[in-house]
Amino acid sequence: MKCFYLNAAYNMNTPTIKTDRLILRKFLENDIEALFLILKDKEVNKFLPWYSLKDIEETKKFYAERYAAKYEQPQAYAYAICLKDDNFPIGYVKVDMEEHHDFGYGLRKEFWHRGIASEAGKAVVEQVKKDGLPYITATHDRNNPRSGNVMQACGMKYCYTYEELWQPKNFLVAFRMYQLNFTKGQDWIYQKYWEEHPNHFIEEL
Q1: Domains, the chain, ranges and CATH?
Q2: Residue limits of the N-acetyltransferase domain (predicted)?
């Protein structure tokens, strides 16, 4: 179920954001080749819920389903991460409007270790907070702790870990769930993953 928090005073579908180094904006149809560069790399997409893409045609379909469709909604946050120097997409950051308000990101590996994902993530977190989302959640594979570092840099707190037979890749993953509350009480925890997956536990991190 999608949850919208509309404010007629301004655009709440992926409004452009500028940070010190970045422009965060909608993906455009003429960004398909840039999007393919992000999505074709097996290492970049190793911990993501899709296989690396093979060609431009697959990328066009991905864009239509995961970006263009969202831009038709009354509220969405589905950003291309671009450097200010050239406004060319090098990654993405998003917050879903489903109940979990899942926060996610990806970045071409030649731009790793520069704080870009954290800079983009912090800006989007501030945007969704301003726009009235009550909370966000995020999950990462326990074998990908760097993703958890980005979540922490954005102010998120670890809540619990659960095991899931992950689709479409069909292998068992231990996911760490992080959360940041805006209007919910600070002790409130999104429990759906805990309830859906019987093998769950809290780690000492």
Answers
A1: 17-201 (3.40.630.30)
A2: 22-178
- Encode pLDDT of 120-152 as tens digits: 999 999 999 999 999 999 999 999 999 999 999
Q: What is the token pair recorded at 12?
A: 């709440």
Instruction: Determine whether 5 is exposed, middle or buried from the number of CB atoms within 10 Å of its CB (0-12, 13-18, 19+).
Output: middle
How many whole angstroms separate alpha carbon 35 and alpha carbon 52? Answer: 11
d(CA 24, CA 15): 8
Q: Which residues does 115 contact at the CB level (< 8 Å), separation at least 6?
A: none
- HSE-CB at 67 with a 13 A cutoff on CA atoms is 20
Residue 187, C-beta contacts closer than 8 angstroms, at least 6 positions apart: none
Tokens of 34: 């840039």
Backbone angles phi, psi at 146, to 5 degrees: -60, -30
Specify which residues 91 forms β-bridges with.
81, 107
Show Cβ contacts of residue 54 under 8 Å, excluding neighbours closer than 6 positions: 40
Query: Residue 198 CB: number of other CB atoms within 10 A?
Result: 8
Q: Is the Cβ–Cβ distance between 144 and 166 less than 8 Å?
A: no
